[in-house]
């Protein structure tokens, strides 16, 4: 009844999957019926998934099983039919098995938004990615190395930093080496030079990875199609509308401290197990802030994001 092959899901068009077999051939696949029924609370297959497919006589395939994921970037979405008003949430998997995320900011023009970077980092930590890289582009505009100084706190946290210039090609070899052989998420605010950088890595790559969310004139997402774009050097870059608006709404307020890598080590030393690190006595996190072991800006960022998450949860 048809041969079984292993493959990688490289495209998801509203439930029609393109699966790349190990020999490079791409099969159009659907989920096997029984798998569809199980796909209620979370997406059963997503780009990046390693699957087992059965090849049918007409050359298409059915996805028979999906391998356990090493990482999942997802977001909570309202179940359809409720028009976003109440109803249970389901998990929408944006990408499975991503090896790394590269968060791109400009040294200036636009000025770096560190709160947004912190949100990205929380998402990356929550997804349990192997590598989280910060890319600072437009270093040609950073004449006095002000941006480098402002980002220094993130270098101290241990995140790999890449300094690039899409105009001169500075740092591109390093970027390419980072992307090689991995499944990467490449995202950041608009105007920072993502498209330019990708075009430096590989001609035409910037066009292939649009990252625009494909929003129609009415402001509605017309599709949530997503794909993995293959790199000449090996590896893939994700092109998925969900990534651009990577939010942290599926992070519960109480777990947020675990995703601030500078705060997390102190949480266990707080007097109260459920310490929010705001005003409780015996808070080890606040003590670390007072002794400048945790950067004050990061602590403020944690507080404001926690506040936002609490308000969002209170609404449900
Ligand atoms: N000075 C300078 N400008 C850059 C650099 N990279 C991109 N740009 C410019 O920044 C603008 C936005 O770039 P683009 O790649 O479209 O950004 P995206 O929105 O992140 O994809 C364009 O005008 C680019 O020419 C850089 O390294 N240095
Ligand atoms: Mg762009
Ligand atoms: Zn505390």
Key features of this structure:
single chain, 316 residues, alpha/beta, OB fold (Dihydrolipoamide Acetyltransferase, E2P), Rossmann fold, Ribonucleotide Reductase Protein R1, domain 1, five-stranded mixed beta barrel, two-stranded antiparallel sheet, 10 helices, 13 strands, binds guanosine-5'-diphosphate, binds magnesium ion, binds zinc ion
Describe the structure.
This protein has a five-stranded mixed β-barrel. The protein has a two-stranded antiparallel ribbon with strand order 6-7. The protein has ten helices and 13 strands. The chain has three domains: 4-66, Nucleic acid-binding proteins (OB fold (Dihydrolipoamide Acetyltransferase, E2P)), CATH 2.40.50; 95-244, P-loop containing nucleotide triphosphate hydrolases (Rossmann fold, 3-Layer(aba) Sandwich); 253-315, Ribonucleotide Reductase Protein R1, domain 1 (Orthogonal Bundle). It is an alpha/beta fold and 316 residues long. The longest helix is centred in the last third of the chain and has 20 residues, at 296-315. Zinc ion binds next to helix 9. The site of guanosine-5'-diphosphate has 14 residues, from helix 5.
